[in-house]
Amino acid sequence: MRSIAFATLGLGLCLALRASARADEWTKTFAVTGKPELRVETSAANIHVDTWDQSVIGARVTTEFYKIGDDGIKVFDHQTGDSVELEIRFPQDVLALGLSRRRVDIEVHMPREGRVNLRTGDGSIRLSNFKGNMELETVDGRQEIEAVDGVLRARSGNGAIRAGGRFDRLSLTSVDGRLEARALPGSTMGEPWLLQAGDGSVILQLPETFAADLDLATVQGHIVLDLPVAIEGKKHRNNIHGKLNGGGNLIAIRTANGPIRLEKL
Fold first, then answer.
1. Could you give the CA distance from residue 264 to residue 205 in angstroms, rounded to a whole number?
2. Do 261 and 204 form a contact (C-beta atoms < 8 A)?
């Protein structure tokens, strides 16, 4: 009986130590007014930003197999008025290990309208239900952007970008990754739009009545048009210039290796 009791106690201690080593958490709230500005920067964490009906920015950093503190993940925060900045830094020796089980997630809830600037190196970005000016960048990670409204500029070194919402300006760039954009009714073109992929397909969905000039080009791929386009000049398999519903501001779509699809919502 004594041996069983010691074994049970030992197992419980091991599980407790393992749990503490596996997870850690940091949280903080920032009171804001009006339309806040959020900046998040990290070298190797996932970023998820969503909105809520509160005049507060709530930030939460969770880790697996990392500790938060002087010898581990460091969280730096700064607030000036309605501008909030978060920076998450990794120890250099920890980054060198590259353990697959290690993970850091940054979750933020903020008011619906404002400005966001989100940047991560080795991690993904998810942005939902936001209205305003949006600038996103990943070095090695995908981006999921949904139900947004406003101006979007998103760049990825190695990773797909999928975006959906009502846009006033749209710029998506990926060196190695697929691009998918869904522009909802009410989208406008105060400035030209650009979708550019180095290695990957590009899909753009537009309302049936959307008006724009088109400049579509792929080096190794083909172009599929599901909307009525008045083609200017000679139609080529991988290069098309034309007008959609009489024309307007320019939509330029480029890819070096992959097809281009222009689809109706």
1. 5
2. yes
Q: Give tens-digit pLDDT for 238-256.
A: 899 999 999 999 999 999 9
Sign, Cα dihedral of 9, 11, 15, 21: positive
Q: What is the pTM of this model?
A: 0.89
Whole-angstrom distance, CA of residue 119 vs CA of residue 15? 35
Residues 6+ away with beta carbon under 8 Å from 20? none
Residue 112 carries which side chain, given as an amino acid letter? R
- How much is the pLDDT for 102? 83
Comparing CA positions, the residue from 72, 20, 18 lying closest to residue 45 is: 72
Instruction: Name the 3-class secondary structure at 223.
Output: strand
Which DSSP string corresponds to 22-68? HEEEEEEEEE--SS-EEEEEESS-EEEEEE-SSSEEEEEEEEES--B
- The share of the chain scoring above pLDDT 70, in percent, equals 88
Residues 6+ apart with CB under 8 A from 98: none
Contact (CB, 8 A) for 262 and 225: yes
